Amino acid sequence: MSPKFTVLWAASGFTPTHPDAVQEMASEKANRLPAKTHRVVQIGPGVAVKYGLLVSKKEAENMMIMAKNTSIPVPKVLAYGTFGPFPRSARDNVICDGQFYETYIYMALAKGQSLDKAWDSCTRPSREAISKQLTTYLLELRKLEGSYIGSLNSGAVLDMASPSIKSKGPFKSEGQFNTALSNAYITTLGTSGLDIRTFVRELLSNNDHKIHFTHGNIKPQHIMVHNGRVTAILDWALSGFYPEYWDFAKALDGDGLGDERAVFIMNTFPQQYALEYLVYCFLTEVL
Q1: For residue 247, what are the contacts with CB-CB under 8 A and spacing of at least 6?
Q2: Which intervals hold domain Aminoglycoside phosphotransferase (predicted)?
Q3: According to the model, what pLDDT value does residue 279 have?
């Protein structure tokens, strides 16, 4: 069966370019934008397509929710759809009903550069202005409270920081989420009969955090800036409802306090979660 392109949603007046044409454009290096686990291709003036490994319609839906309910700048979604099915040998992508599909997200290009690239040329006043804007946006996210832990529309946990619990949930409470984390840690560690359950579960005994919408990957490379202004926050693939400390811990994940830009992001948070970050580091050494 030949792969089929199914448009799941498109803005009025916008016609998505067929994936075959997108992939042909992607063969030209000049059209490709920086990305690791997927491809982002500029297909025309001011228009880009994100597709590939781990791309899903959830990311498009997350951006549309942000655009509708907050003032947080996100790339304007123009359309999204799926292309497939493919056999595993042809496409190493997400599974949908036992078959493999690619998801294509068409969006407006954000103006400027990512903060990690613009960092050295940013003046102190520009950095201060960017910091204030990010704090405002983080406060807006905290207003979007949830009653479960998981992805949008009562979906499963998608955060790659804990692959052992990926595609599980949603969890009705932080207590259930913490139990899943501690069980995954103990199983993954493989303690050969050593009983560490009480210790690990005590580390995760704080179940009193508020649950709110979380970006899931706030890092300098995902923050677009221009003339001292934040023009867009990118990469909403891991977003969902998580405990209030989650974005703080994720912002430092992989960089830590030795990175000037990571510390800059850390200081934009309206509240810091030092103990929760240490517990998160303990868990992710294994998970």
Answers
A1: 138, 141, 214, 215, 216, 218, 269
A2: 201-253
A3: 92
* DSSP 8-class letter at 31: G
The residue type found at 96 is: C
CATH architecture for residues 114-284: Alpha-Beta Complex (3.90)
pLDDT of residue 190: 74
Is the CB of residue 143 less than 8 Å from the CB of residue 212?
yes
Amino acid at 188: T
Task: Give the torsion sign (CA, 171, 243, 52, 252).
Answer: negative
Beta-carbon contacts of residue 37 (< 8 Å; ≥ 6 apart): 52, 53, 54
189: left (phi over 0), alpha (psi -120 to 50) or beta: alpha
Find out whether 103 and 51 touch, Cβ atoms under 8 Å. yes
The pTM assigned to this predicted structure is: 0.90
Would you kindly state where each structural domain of the chain is located, as residue ranges? 4-109, 114-284
Q: How far apart are CA 1 and CA 134, in angstroms?
A: 47
The size of the chain, in residues, is 287
Burial of 121 (0-12, 13-18, 19+ CB in 10 A): exposed
Which single residue is written with the structure tokens 């950095």? 127
Residue 281 parent element (H or E): helix 274-284
Which residues, at least 6 apart from 255, have a Cβ–Cβ distance to it below 8 Å?
219, 261, 262
CA distance 42 to 193: 54
Which of 74, 68, 4 has its CA nearest to residue 218? 74
CB 100, CB 84: distance < 8 Å: yes
Q: Report the alpha-carbon distance of residue 274 to residue 80 in Å, rounded.
A: 38
Q: Say how far apart CA 163 and CA 103 lie, in whole Å.
A: 21
Q: Decide: 41 and 25 in contact? Cβ < 8 Å.
A: yes
pLDDT beneath 50, residues of the chain: 89-96
